[in-house]
Amino acid sequence: MSAVSMTVNGKAVTGDVEARTLLVQFLRENLRLTGTHVGCDTSQCGACVVHIDGIAAKACTTLALQCEGAKITTIEGLADPNGPLHPMQEAFRENHGLQCGFCTPGMIMAALDIVRRRGNDLDEHTIREQLDGNICRCTGYHNIVKAIAAGAKAMAKGGARQAAE
Amino acid sequence: MSATGIGASVRRKEDLRFITGKGQYTDDVIRPGETRAAFVRSPHAHAAIKSIDISTARTMPGVVAVLTGKELATDKIGNLICGWMIHSKDGTPMKMAPHPALAADKVCHVGDAVAVVVAESQAQARDAAEKVKVDYQVIPAVVDPAQAKSGPQIHDVAPKNTIYEWSLGDSKAVDAAFGAAKHITKLDIVNNRLAPNAIEPRVALAEYDSGTDQLTLWNTTQNPHVSRLVIAAFVGMAPEHKLRVIAPDVGGGFGSKIFIYPEEVVCLWAARKVGRPVKWTADRTEAFVSDAHGRDHVTRAELALDANGKMLAMRVKTVANLGAYMSTFSSSVPTYLYATLLSGQYDIPQIYCEVDAVYTNTVPVDAYRGAGRPEATFVVERLVEVAARQMGIDPADLRKRNFIKSFPHQTPVIMAYDAGDYNASLKRAFELADVKGFNKRKREAAREGKLRGLGYSTYIEACGIAPSQAVGSLGCGVGLWESAEVRVNPTGSVEVLTGSHAHGQGHETTFAQLVSERLGIPFENISIVHGDTDKVQFGMGTYGSRSGAVGMSAIVKALDKIEAKAKKVAAHMLEAAEGDIVFKDGKFTVAGTDKSAAWGDVSLNAYIAHKFTGQELEPGLKETSFYDPTNFTFPAGCHICEVEVDRETGKTEIVNWTAIDDFGTVVNPMIVEGQVHGGIAQGIGQALLESVIYDKDGHLVTGSLMDYSMPHAHDLPSFQVGLTETKSPSNPLGIKGCGEAGAIAAPAAVINAITDAIGTEELAMPATAQAVWSALQRGEPRQAA
Questions:
Q1: What is the pLDDT of residue A27?
Q2: Which of B3, B422, B427, B734 registers the highest number of CB atoms within 10 A of its CB?
């Protein structure tokens, strides 16, 4: 076992992990942050997407020890529990961009990374291409695409509260 | 229509927890002292188990127990069962082979579980599972359903690997009609095997309380009560009242989480043996080798028509692959959920269908979104489209000539369609898809070197499954009603306990809309409770697009009783005759007066019981209903797919998708549209991308999402969807159901469009770029009639 320290959703955390412990296991089992999900183990589905130092990454194929000293943001860290939702979260609700909800945290975290890379004015084609790393089995993506376009716009209006702070 | 009543696109109650990461899926439930399970699974498709050596595994770090199929048998844990009896043509019952939760003597498919390791951590359990030494004697395997009858026999009870040879319809009348036909269209069809792939893998967490002798199972299931019933009554794990099944948030099901699987049985058994909670979480590859697959039919289909294109008869022969064991409802899928829909939207006087169900050395096959109806629709809609092309009749016109136009309509294959307007949905889809402008678009595409095609699918399905007497007469082992309990609290807020289960469908929202409309109370004051056998008395769960038609109807019936009781309370409060009380917009009024009582006052008075004696009226306000519908429902519609095929690469792009569906009453259009989108995506997945592939020895080639092609956002278009409406006369709300329509309609529309584009009918699903390119190279011209 090795000690690992990182900042998760603004809080300093430490833990003892095996060398093979994945970031997603550390988040889910050690920190009990169960909003980050595992859907495929092989980096295809994207249910496990979190932000590491502001950049989207798949927590199912990242070792916890690789994140020593890093700043991690998970779905739980996007909005203050007592405050308003992040515009991208709100856009998913408003546009019915989720059904079973299992892929949703990863979708939202990936969406924020698309905004970071491609800006707030996203066309349908760009969103569809950029979602290559995330799979949803419920929605047929139609409303996810709408939600991301709307969320990106709302983020620009709302004073650009960027996700991956 | 109120802002939160029936017909309003209310935003979903359930979303807040999901978008903030606060959902509680089974794997998120953590119990004190929890252990983790890892299964030892067969790497062979067919093998005898000579011996299992667990001595090394047992000594591995963190290991709590290593258990095998022999111990399972010693403890008299019963086999898994298939709950729908099908009889063969000769009257003999289907050949259900024993299906132990852990194989003791032989394994029948890659992934068949032979042992389980229970350890302190998942990693330790998996490490130790790798140290379990199983000595297998490999037996030749059979994979292809068409070869099953001549393959090595898998189960003693099933000679020629045949489960049943079933038929429906009048073969002599069909033969006679074919003899008199002017035109016959024949097609050989393979309906490709699919993996459901809900993004949440299956999970089971079992806990035993020795103080109360109580077992609890948290499980990714679509029907917790049926799960409890089977595990109690057939597997014999515990008496029904000593087993609690909880299905918390479930991350998609699509049918695959209906069934009772070996893993939950083993976790329950192991939890009692080791005296600690035992959790198993599937990884994706385990899902591929243990979740029931869907489809997998090989079919020869023929349609007979007269000179004017009037359909005379249909003849279908299907071999259905049910895999290595009979899953919970597998027998019903290629029979009563398939052959009964072969009439489509058409008036076909005679239909005869034979279905042979076979065992193969593959993962069991059972219901997957649509379950039998996508297979039927594909047969019907391909036959119709090809017949039209062969006869030189416009495909829309041929459909219109044969549409059923008056209702009720008795088909030759059991179903009595009760309402519909097939012309209306075709007409609207035709306009929305701008079919008139298609030839121009085709010419423009040709200038770019692209082949444009257009394909229809005018589908029908039987949903709201269905009257218990009817399904009982067809062999179903359970009744298919639904229950609801409406609890009004003293403060007037309402909890509805439903036997339906949501795993993405949004019942917490739509069911609350019904209550809000009916009682005239705020949407926020209503909670929907589901998925726990300790809370909900009994329920049949969610599948077959039944939760609206059957589940909500049960709520309507319970609300009727609530209103009747509340009127009695109001009558006492207002000192009026019960018959004079009018209930409207959440208020009880004495007819013809201004005397009234608000909903909250009546609720409170029902509980404080100060205005009536207990002899006159029982205190409290809680009612239950078990609702059994009068018929299936028959959602139907028209989907039109327009594609462009790249002549050089064979790559298909869907450039336009139009769906017009008749779901009867729509409670929440936003949610219904979402269901349609998702269904179409799965149907397009089947048509263009997805296929479970085994090699000839029964090894799974597509065992991860790296190998199995799931639809991505960039594989799909946005969809134009719309509704027509004829109400279902079979339930009080007029709902028909919407969950499966897209998956049923879409495959035929896609293949009809591609074959229209490339000019040959020889194209199997999935129509990958390679398959389309190859079809183009074969390039045989379409035969005229």
A1: 98
A2: B422
CA B596 to chain A, closest CA, distance in angstroms equals 38
CATH of the domain at B394: 3.30.365.10
Chain A residues 59-118 with CB within 8 Å of chain B: 74-76, 78-79, 81, 85, 89, 92-94, 96, 98-105, 108
Q: What is the pLDDT of residues B279-306, one digit of tens each?
A: 999 999 999 999 999 999 999 999 999 9
Report the alpha-carbon distance of residue B269 to residue B277 in Å, rounded: 11
To test the contact with chain A by mutation, choose from B9, B18, B29, B750 the residue with the greatest count of A C-beta atoms within 10 A, namely: B18
Report the pLDDT value the prediction gives residue B465, as an integer from 0 to 100: 81
Per the domain annotation, does B118 fall within a domain?
Answer: yes
- Residue B658 CA: distances (Å) to CA of A138, A147, B522, B634, B674: 19, 21, 36, 20, 14
Q: Chain-wide mean pLDDT for chain B?
A: 97
Q: Are residues B266 and B320 in the same domain?
A: no
Q: Within the 507-536 window of chain B, which residues sit less than 8 Å (CB to CB) from chain A?
A: none
| CATH number of residue A19's parent domain | 3.10.20.30
CA angle, B164 then B165 then B168, to 5°: 120
| B169 in a structural domain | no
| Residues A57/A106, Cβ–Cβ less than 8 Å | no
Kindly state whether residues B648 and B750 are assigned to the same domain: yes
The span from the CA of B262 to the CA of B204, in Å, is: 10
Cβ-nearest to A100 among B504, B673, B680: B504
Strand, coil or helix: what is B45? coil
Same domain, B437 and B579: no
**Residue A20, domain extent:** 2-77
pLDDT at B58 over 80: yes
Does a structural domain hold residue B204?
A: yes
| Cβ contact B90:B55 at 8 Å | no
pTM for the full model? 0.97
Same domain assignment for residues B491 and B520: yes
**What's the total number of domains in chain A?**
2
pLDDT digits (tens, 9 = 90+) for B650-670: 999 999 999 999 999 999 999
Checking if the pLDDT of B265 tops 80, the result is: yes
**Residue whose C-alpha is closest to residue B606's, from B559, B578, B566, B574:** B566
Tokens linked to B357: 């169900």
Residue where a domain stops, chosen among B627, B662, B685: B627
Both tokens of A31, joined, read 């920190």
A25 lies in the same domain as A66: yes
The closest alpha carbon to A116, from A142, A151, A81, A143, belongs to A151
B51 strand-pairing partners: B135
pLDDT band at B201 (very low <50, low <70, confident <90, very high): very high
Q: Pick from A28, A45, A74: which is nearest to B199 by CB?
A: A45
Closest by Cα among B364, B472, B367, B475 to B80? B364
- Are B459 and B414 part of one and the same domain? yes
The band of B637, judged by pLDDT with boundaries at 50, 70 and 90, is very high
pLDDT at residue number B536 = 94
- Can you give the pLDDT at residue B782? 54
CATH number, domain at B98?
3.90.1170.50
Residue A158, pLDDT above cutoff 80: no
